[in-house]
Amino acid sequence: MKLKSILKNKRGQVGLDTAKAVMLTLLVIGVIAFAIIVALNALGDSNALTAGSFAKNSTDNILNNITDGTADFFSNTGTWFALLAVVVIILIIAIVIFAVNRFGGGRGGGL
Question: Residue 18: which of 72, 99, 84 has the closest Cα?
Fold first, then answer.
């Protein structure tokens, strides 16, 4: 995205579009992960699988892997939010520098 188009979009100046996209993506991933966990849990609790059978053990292993993986995935969201905040701060600083250079650059002379 060009800097001029960023300056025309007031929300894009402070990186709110990026923040909104990241939050929406995390929400969608969370909903999908929750639906998968619920579906696998229902499959594991079905009467067709007998305790100690290969199918039951495989289903339990898959359910444990999915829930552990999801928990590990979302345990890093604090880091993602911190990185997103840093990106927003960098965007704000860059736009302030650009605006100062733009308004102050036309003047000649010294003090």
Answer: 84
Q: What is the pTM of this model?
A: 0.49
User: Which pLDDT tens digit goes with each residue over 11-66?
Assistant: 555 566 777 777 788 888 888 888 888 887 777 666 666 767 777 778 788 888 88
Q: DSSP letters along 56-94, please?
A: HHHHHHHHHHHHHHHHHHHHTHHHHHHHHHHHHHHHHHH
Residue ranges per domain, the chain? 3-103
Q: What is the pLDDT of residue 103?
A: 77
CA distances from 20 to 8, 59, 76, 81 (A): 18, 36, 18, 11
Residue 72 CA to residue 94 CA, distance in Å, equals 34
CA distances from 110 to 81, 103, 104, 105, 106 (A): 43, 16, 12, 12, 12
Token representation of residue 61 = 């292993």
Structure-token pair, residue 74: 């979302």
